[in-house]
Every structure is written in C-alpha cells, then in structure tokens.
Amino acid sequence: MAIRLEVPPEAVTANQPDHRQNSRNKPGRWKLAIKRDWRLYTLVLLPLAYFAVFRYLPMAGNVIAFRQFQPGGSIFGEKWVGLKYVTLFINDPSFWQAFQNTIVLGVLTLLFCFPMPIIFALMLNELRSQKFKKFVQTVAYLPHFMSVVIIAGMILQNFSVTGTVNQIANTLFGTTVNFTQDAGWFRPMYISSEVWQTMGWGAILYLAALTRVDESLYEAARIDGANRWQQTWHVTLPAIRPTIITLLILNIGTFMAVGFEKILLIYNPLNYETSDVISTYLYRVGLESSNFSYATAIGMFESVIGLTLILSANAVSKRLAGTSLW
Amino acid sequence: MKDTGVLIKDMKVSAGMRVFRLLNLVFLVVVVFLTLYPFLNIIAQSFSSEGFINAGQVNLFPRGFNTETYKLILADSTFWGNYGNTLLYTVVATAISMVLTTSFAYAIAKKDLKGRGLFIGIAVFTMFFNGGLIPNYVLISSLGMRDTLWAVVLPNAISVFNLLIMKSFFENMPRELEEAAAIDGLTQYGVLFRVVLPLSKAIVATMVLFYAVANWNSWFQAFLYLDNPDLFPVTIYLRNMIAGVTTAGSAGGTAENVGQIAANIQSVTIVLTVIPILCVYPFVQKYFFSGVMLGSVKE
After folding, report:
1. Where would you tag: which of A101, A206, B91, B234 has the fewest CB atoms within 10 A of its CB?
2. Would an 8 Å CB–CB cutoff place A122 in contact with chain B?
3. Cross-chain CB nearest to B130 (options A47, A55, A127)
4. How far apart, in whole angstroms, are the C-alpha atoms of residue A271 and residue A63?
C-alpha cells in the first residue's frame, strides 16, 4: 500500500527478495520511504515546524491554567497550583454572565444565520435569468470580503443616534434609541448584522451543491406530477442534505467562539450585560488585567466545550444521517 | 432535451407560480438593496458635511457636499504610513503562506507517501482545537516577536481550509503526467516546479487571492502585538478611530459632536481602505467561487 513501484514488479521480486518482509516491518518501511521520497519529506519540514511552533506549542501552553505564570518567565509557568484558577472562574459571576451570553448569541446565530443561506440559495436557484442571478450573487458576496473593522464601523454608524436605523425609527415611531449603548438592543444589532454579513457567502456551498443535482431527477418528479414546491422538497433538499449537515456540524463547532473580533469592536461597558461573551471576557481578564493563568483556564474550558460540541455533533449526524466530517 | 424541459415548464406555469416568481424576484431585489445600502451610506457620509450627519439626514446621497475630509486624510502621513504597512504585511504574509501551503499540500496529496495520514491529522486537528488567545499571546511575546512584522505574518501562515482545497486540487491531477516526467528523469522537485506548478496557475491564483484578502483585512494580530504606531496596518488606524467614537459617544453631551465629526472622517477612511478590495473584487469573486467548487468536489 505504502510502496510506489518504480520498477516492474518482477524486477522487485528478483532483486529484493526480502521486499515484502520489509514492508511489514515498520522501521524498514520508513527507511525505504525516506530513501525514495526524501524530497517530499523536505517539503513538509517547514510546514510541520510551523504547526509545531504556532499551533501545538500554544496547546501545550494551556498548562499555565494549572500553574502560576510570571510575565517574562517560562511560557509553561513556574509552579503547579492545581485547580486554583478553575475554582476561581467557577465562582465568578461575570464568567457565568459571559457564559450565558455566549449560549444565547450562539443559539440565535444558529437559528437565524444558519438557515438564511439555504433559503437564499434555493431562491437564487429559482431564478430563470442567469444574468440577474449572477448580479445578485456578486452583490451578496461583497460583505464577506470586508474587514471586520470596516463592518464594525458600518454597524456603529448605521445604529448610531443619527444613523439610518434611527432615521427609520424616528419616521415610523417618532423615537430615537441609542442602540449601540443599550444592552437590550445588542442582540438584535449583532444578529441582524451577522445575517447581513453571512447570508450571501454562506449560500455559496449550497449553490455549488445545487449545480450537481441530476436534472433527470426533476424530470422524473415532474412526470410523477410533482409541482414546483414538491420538487424542492423531495429532490432539491435531499440533494443538498449532506452539505447542510456538514455545515451544521461546522457551525456547531464554532458555537463557543461567536463573533469574538466583531463583538470586541462593537461592544462597550454599557452593554456588557448582554454583549460580553466568554472570549471577550477572557480577553479583558487576560490582556487588560494581565491575569494570564486565570484567562487561560477560561480559554481551555471554552475550547474543550467547542471540541466536545463538534465531536458529538459529528457522532450524532454519523448515526442519524450517515454524514460526517471524517 | 433541455429545450423540451423548459417548454413543459413554461406551459404549466400556474397563477401561483407566477406570484411566487414575482415575490422571489422582489425579495432578491430587496436583498440586493439591503446588502448595498451600508456601503452607499458610508460613501454618502464621506462626502457629506458634519451638520447634515449630526442632524441624521444623510442616507443614500451626500448632503452638503464636502471633500475637505478626503483632503485631510489624504494629507495625513500616518494614514499613508499605515497603508504602506498593510501593503507590506499583505505581500510578505501571502508569500510565506503560499510557500508553506503549496509545499505541504503537494506532499500530502501523494497518496502513497508514508506518514501522510499523520501529516493530514496534524493539520486538521488544529481546525477544531487551538491553543487559545492567552497561550498564543504568551508564546509570541516570549519569542520576541512583539513589535515586529513577524508577529503579524507568521502566526496564521497556514490556513488549513486553504491547505485542504489545494490538496484536493493536486490529488485530482492526472498521475500519468507526473509519472511521465519522472521517467524523463525529473526529480520530485523537478516534477513540482516544472510540471505541476505550471499546470496549477488557477489554484495558485485562487490561493494568493484568498490569503491576500484575508491579510489585507486582518487587524487582530497587529492589535495584539504591535505597540508602535509606525508599524500599524491601516485596519488599526481605522479601529482606533472607531474606538474613539465609542468613548466619545458614551461620554454623552458635547462629546456627541466629536463623535459625529469622526463619523465623517471614519467614512472617508473606510472608503479609502475598501477601494483596493473593490478593485480586485470582480476577479476575487470569480476565483473564490471556483476555489470553493474545487474544494467541495471531494466531499
């Protein structure tokens, strides 16, 4: 399996009688592989070094959640302190508020931002004018290419006291709301901007999947007397189901990290009550107050939940739908 | 064949179908408008005078036409310095990313490379589990990368998503081509540089655009690790402006005016930052779609 034959098989058996034995024996196989493919292995060296230093070293660096850390000292901390920092955050009301906000925003994101691209893709698919379809797509992908800083700037301006949303509110209800500073309005502001940002680009994988739906299936459905809606329900949706499930699993996997950079840019102390999520809270605890170990403990908690979520979502979908990421 | 299909469809268009198509069209037109609106609003604000912005009267079109702010920003050397930094970081980071991603993708696309599964696993695992903010911060600081270009260009050099797209592209290349080249006496390096890469221009262009756009837009690495304003990318210039507005606004009262003057300056900065993206957007958009198609074919 792992051997690529560069000479005819007969020649191999003739010249290297112990070839098979070697391929069962692990060190020998590696030696052979390196001898043959050493150039390929040189290609993976730098990338592997990159992963080791910038991805796996920080993972190991999580031990400071259980160790005392001194700025400027070892990145793995100075001495063991056990579960000190874990008990600290478990008894921290600010943490639990951030936890609750994370769950609420995560659920709202799944509820609103996940289905919209599917609906959008289906609607685009119903268009008969390819030119118009192309135009809508081109426009709808645009927000995806904008820096989150620009998006944050747009959100704050549109929702500001003199911004468009207030202009509309003023015309319709005669009131002005300070959306950006009112904790009660943070969630609608966040979710609506999130839909604006992700709906168009989110549809791209579904559109890719839709182009691969076998046209004859529709033909058959029509002959069976299925109307347009039934065709969508019984042909289109099942065809893109694997894509839907794959993306759902991936979305669940990023559930805990909800829009960290965006929230960091648009929130402020006046709406922490609803806007502060685990990642922004640990950012403030860690980098603004320099409680590195404490923030790492929170961060580890967050990543472990994230990993658990994606593993369970994957396992569930494997069992129920037969689709999984790996 | 296809024509008759369309014909049947057209003949059977019911009243309900017509209504649906109309609603669908209207809905999509609304989507287009809502998507474009914030951009148009920013452009309008960037050309408006503060008085009209303060009064909440600027929406689609500029009021009290004013180009003073553009002159102000365009004359600001900090802005241009930061713009230059963005350009530099984008070029360097994209070059590093391309070298690392291409070489790794090419190697792990070889189905009979021993250790391939392990290499893929090492990369894919990082998609689902990462060290987290603080350990990363501690690491970069202890490597002495603070206030250097490396803190911006190295930590996110490989995007596993891009890596997997590229891997599946290489996997789909006809093997005979490489085998023929090997028989002609090319080494694996020779095959990569003289046969495979010249045939991969489309995917390489896609990846360059993926990385370049991401780097152009990034701000957080710079925000975390750069303290020297001379090193800031333009996204940080903009972020500091926005953060300034937030504090000015929360102070209330007279500070409101400061916030609104800044709204005009902010809009100008946003417009100036977005222009390069808008210029490459038509190409990027096409390539992005084909890139995603390439990546999803394997699923």
Report:
1. B91
2. no
3. A55
4. 33
Say whether residue B273 is in contact with chain A using an 8 A CB cutoff: yes
pLDDT band at A78 (very low <50, low <70, confident <90, very high): confident
CA torsion sign for B127, A75, A298, B250 is negative
Whether A40 has its CB under 8 Å from any CB of chain B: the answer is yes
Gap between the Cα atoms of A255 and A252, Å rounded: 5
Q: Which of B119, B87, B88, B89 is nearest to B104 (CA)?
A: B119
CA–chain centroid gap for A304, Å, is 15
Q: Rounded to the nearest 5 degrees, what angle is found at the Cα of A162, between the Cα atoms of A157 and A165?
A: 70
pLDDT grade for B261, boundaries at 50, 70 and 90: low
Contact criterion met (CB below 8 Å) for B263 and A161? no
Compute CA distances A63 → B47, B129, B141, whole Å: 53, 15, 17
% pLDDT > 90, chain A: 42
What predicted TM-score, i.e. pTM, was given to this entire model?
0.85
CB contact under 8 A, B188 and A166: no
Contact residues for A326 (Cβ-Cβ < 8 A; gap 6+): A314, B124
Q: Pick from B100, B239, B241: which is nearest to A46 by CB? A: B100
Compute φ and ψ for B44, nearest 5 degrees. -60, -45
Maximum alpha-carbon separation in chain B: 79
Write the Ramachandran bin of A81: left for phi over 0, alpha for psi from -120 to 50, otherwise beta. alpha
Q: Is B261 on the interface with A (CB under 8 A)?
A: no
Closest-CA distance, A43 to chain B, in angstroms, reads: 5
> Distance between CA atoms of A217 and A235, rounded to whole angstroms?
7
**Could you write out the DSSP letters of every residue in B23-47?**
HHHHHHHHHHHHHHHHHHHHHHHHT
- Contact criterion met (CB < 8 Å) for B99 and A136: no
Tokens of A138: 């081109």
A1–B112: do the CB atoms touch at under 8 Å?
yes
Chain A partners within 8 Å of B284 (Cβ): 145
DSSP letters for A283-314: HIIIIIS--HHHHHHHHHHHHHHHHHHHHHHH
Chain B 177-236, residues with CB within 8 Å of chain A CB atoms:
182, 187-189, 192, 213, 216-220, 224, 235
In contact, B285 and A162? CB cutoff 8 Å:
no
**B86 to chain A, minimum CA–CA distance in Å?**
12
Question: Which pair of structure tokens corresponds to residue A157?
Answer: 């301006």
